[in-house]
Amino acid sequence: MNGETIAVIGGTGDLGFGLALRWVRAGAHVLIGSRDETKAKDAAERLKQTLSAERPPDQILVAGFENAQACAQASVVVLAVPFAAQVSILKSIRGSLKDAILIDTTVPLAAAFGGKATRTLGVWQGSAAAQARELVPSGTPVLAAFHNLSAEALQDLSETPDCDILVCGDDKPAKDILFSLVKLIPGLRPIDAGPLEMARIVESITALLISVNGRYRVRHSGIRITGLEPEA
User: Fold this and answer.
1) Taking residues 78-98, what's their average pLDDT?
2) Mapped to the 3 state alphabet, what secondary structure does 49-67 carry?
3) What is the pTM of this model?
4) By C-alpha distance, which of 101, 99, 120 is closest to 110?
5) At the topology level of CATH, where does 5-216 sit?
6) DSSP-derived secondary structure for the chain
7) Nearest to 19 by CA among 168, 178, 214
8) How confident is the model over 9-61, as pLDDT tens digits?
9) Confidence category of residue 87, pLDDT binned at 50, 70, 90
10) Whole-angstrom Cα distance, residue 178 to residue 166?
11) Strand order in the sheet with 163-169
12) Residue ranges of the domains in the chain?
């Protein structure tokens, strides 16, 4: 089991809670972060209750904190918030990142500002992940991942997610750590999608999948890359 302490900022939301649930189920140590500490603690308690039938309480390694407090204790910080909140949240936690890796899951969907969920917004930096890199300390590795993963499938423990996780970033050691975390969740396979500049393409796939879900009346469409070895 990976020895990282993972802070999930936005862990009270759908994707954040789903990731936290799956990682805790795999034995990882997770800190749920929220702007409201009470909501973070409530989410942690809900996660414990969800897993209580599977394992003893002392093996459910999760706690809730205000965002900055969660970041200060973590070696990996996963930002799982809507695009409209990304900048303000990053500004509030950047002093607490210390030596942590930042994993940005943000998608600049037009829905964040009242538009269609099948459209993305232009970001001056090229992508939400590149915007995140400008807002964190210069020595903080920033990776982009988990954009195309169904939050609903993560939260339903009777399901095994069926999705490749496209990881963009410029720091190889940080990617290795993230790859090990992805592999803790059955059904997911990490794929190195290149440098962080590729995040603009990966982020836009989310809008495509939302369109596919609507057209085919499904909820869990995802991405699989063919032609690779199973353990790519």
Assistant:
1) 96
2) HHHCCCCCHHHCCEEEEEH
3) 0.95
4) 120
5) Rossmann fold (3.40.50)
6) ----EEEEETTTSHHHHHHHHHHHHTT-EEEEEESSHHHHHHHHHHHHHHHTTTS-GGG--EEEEEHHHHHHT-SEEEE---HHHHHHHHHHHGGG-TT-EEEE----BGGGGTS-TT-B---TTSSHHHHHHHHS-TT--EEE--TT--HHHHH-TTS---EEEEEEES-HHHHHHHHHHHTTSTTEEEEE--SGGGHHHHHHHHHHHHHHHHHHT-S-------SS-TT-
7) 178
8) 999 999 999 999 999 999 999 999 999 999 999 999 999 999 999 989 889 99
9) very high
10) 11
11) 62-66, 29-34, 5-9, 76-79, 101-104, 142-144, 163-169, 188-192
12) 5-216
Mean pLDDT, the chain, rounded, equals: 94
**Do β-strands 29-34 and 62-66 pair in parallel, antiparallel, or remain unpaired?**
parallel
Q: How far is CA 186 from CA 19, 44, 153, 203, in A?
A: 12, 21, 12, 23
Tokens 């950047």 correspond to 94
Per-residue pLDDT tens over the stretch 97-156: 989 999 999 999 877 778 887 888 888 898 999 999 999 999 999 999 999 999 999 999
- For the CA atoms of 135, 139, 140, 145, the dihedral, rounded to the nearest 10 degrees, stands at 90
Amino acid at 76: V
